[in-house]
Amino acid sequence: DTGVSQDPRHKITKRGQNVTFRCDPISEHNRLYWYRQTLGQGPEFLTYFQNEAQLEKSRLLSDRFSAERPKGSFSTLEIQRTEQGDSAMYLCASSSIQGGVRETQYFGPGTRLLVL
Amino acid sequence: GDSVTQMEGPVTLSEEAFLTINCTYTATGYPSLFWYVQYPGEGLQLLLKATKADDKGSNKGFEATYRKETTSFHLEKGSVQVSDSAVYFCALSDPVNNAGNMLTFGGGTRLMVKP
Q1: Which residues contact A26 (CB under 8 A, 6 or more apart)?
Q2: pLDDT number for residue A2
Q3: Considering all CA atoms of chain B, what is the largest pairwise distance in Å, rounded to the nearest integer?
Q4: Closest residue of B to A10, CA-based?
Q5: Can you give the pLDDT at residue B97?
Q6: Given pLDDT bands bounded at 50, 70 and 90, which one contains residue A1?
Q7: CB–CB of A42 and B89 under 8 A?
């Protein structure tokens, strides 16, 4: 396993611009999660996929946010019309439900977004 | 809803000191409990986990015991090293009451170990 990878690692953008992040999970992990972590806080759940289906979205995920996992492999998280409040670390994690109900999530290195 | 409470940091210790980071949780179901560690500028790494009462998770000299009676999962290490300096997060997932099994995190505790 090469682990969960995320791209880019850092992104600086101006308010109002759109940004897109990519996450590549551990191969054959069927669940993929997105979390957001603001400075000095613990991560907060945003959304998750099982295979290509997006099964749950947090209330934190405003309509400016959209996530996809088109073939059940990598996922993208897009933020439209970015705001300064979107500045955070965006973390991706993956897990295998075949491991049983009590599976473990493995995290990527994160994408740090700064909105100016 | 589910929640996790950790002791606030920073915790500053000298090398070889004993470490305890307190974590308590509230959950309606029967959660799994985790400790993750985050080094500067990096994502979260799983440190240890426990899935049922009285289980002890351990890794790299760190230990934590799932105490259902006190709803706690305190992290301990007998002798810390400078390389242990990081932020530690306690987390839970509740697969019985939440099919998505998403993690609920505490606020994190920063550990600083001085030589």
Answers
A1: A1, A2, A3, A4, A94, A96, A106
A2: 77
A3: 45
A4: B41
A5: 73
A6: low
A7: yes
